[in-house]
Specification:
alpha+beta, 41% strand, ten-stranded antiparallel sheet
Length: 212
């Protein structure tokens, strides 16, 4: 009897966790025609960017893919639809490319999260493989992937032993220099900016201050 109660408690906790993780919140979608539609939107933890959005108006539930709407907003977050070139190179330790710095691009339709709004917007996309991408674009313009790739090269110790060392393709810094060329003194700031949301967000906000 005690065992049965324990099972019921565990099942209840799992169900409660699932319901908490997925709920409907007030939001809105922007159609491809530019219309704004208020609705309830199913949300979750969204460690990864959603690949679809489920809306509800009264009892009418609909599902939209990135090609079917322009954007949606929920829980103070904005996601825009975009057709982008993403680097799908291996990024997990133990699978990195050897002696190949070149990105492996693939076109995909995604919901990119808007991180910083300004003259040039910063967007973030975390793929199903947990690879984090950052993108840049002006309002309404096509988004450009900021390129960053980790790969391996053969290196040699002082004793003559060879080993594999992780190095980086930081093409995103060259891209940012071109995009921020109208603000003097940004080259040194870009050189010190790592490929992560905190540092890139700070840089984009500085650029916003400069360009205004």
């Amino acid at each position: 009897m005690r065992s049965s109660k324990l099972v019921m408690v565990i099942l209840g906790a799992i169900l409660s966790s699932h319901l908490t993780a997925q709920k409907f919140s007030a939001g809105k979608i922007i159609t491809n025609e530019g219309d704004t539609v208020k609705c309830m939107i199913k949300t979750g933890k969204w460690d990864l960017n959603p690949n679809k959005v489920v809306t509800q108006i009264n009892d009418d539930t609909k599902r939209y893919w990135p090609t079917e709407i322009a954007a949606f907003q929920v829980d103070n977050r904005t996601y825009v639809s975009a057709r982008v070139r993403l680097d799908i190179s291996n990024h997990i330790d133990g699978t990195l490319d050897l002696s190949d710095s070149r990105p492996k691009f693939e076109n995909d339709s995604i919901f990119a999260e808007l991180i910083v709004v300004g003259k040039k917007n910063l967007y973030r996309y975390k793929s199903p493989s947990y690879k984090e991408h950052f993108l840049i674009g002006e309002q309404g313009a096509q988004l450009e992937s900021l390129v960053f790739k980790r790969f391996l090269v053969w290196a040699e110790t002082a004793g003559g032993q060879t080993y594999k060392r992780v190095v980086f393709n930081e093409e995103y810094k060259n891209q940012l220099e071109k995009n921020f060329a109208d603000c003097p003194g940004f080259k040194d700031k870009i050189a010190l900016t790592g490929y992560d949301m905190g540092q890139l967000s700070s840089l984009f906000r500085l650029y916003y201050s400069c360009s205004n």
